[in-house]
Amino acid sequence: MDRRKALRNMGMAMGYTVATPTLISLMQGCKTEPAMTWEPDFFTKDQGAALLKLVDIVLPKTDTPSASEMQVHLFLDRFAAEAMEPKKRDFLKLTTEKFMQKALTESGSETLADVDAEALEKVFGGLLKISKEDREANFEALQKYEEGVAAEDSSVLLDDTVASFAFANTVRDMSIWGYKTSEYVGEEVLAYLPIPGEYVGCGDVQELTGGKAWSL
What we know:
globular, mainly alpha, 10 helices, 0% strand
């Protein structure tokens, strides 16, 4: 797959549309931290090791660097720890635990450290490669759960598979977001204009940027 071409044409479709000062500082902080010495702030150490493999499942090394080479796993961990709203952070914690337990069960492993990338990819892909009907049902279940939590309904429960789906969906979307926000991708893959010039409100994207999405 030509990921460079895919990234050129990919808009900010996940709802993450503004590069705030917080986001920029998080990305800058991740650039210089060696992955080998990484100690997660939000995830546990074992969850962090699994996350490192997962971001490369989403964006493996091809004609552009892998997600882990762009420190995307550090970005996800730091964003969760420092920028997420408390309720969203709690939800991510819950769904992370459900996904990791599913990975352990389906791989037959005793610890997350024993779950290799192939086993993780099987679980991850199985959660995301589902029918449109199942995807809509999952999102409906997630909405009902969020509404129950907001109403402080202690009886509200979330199915383990739906929770695992929510984690996989979040990791995929945020990995792409973090990757596109990295300095290398912003300057070398997307349309990059360090000194903005004329504003063209209704121009043809192919003519203006060669089909690339703008770098933020």
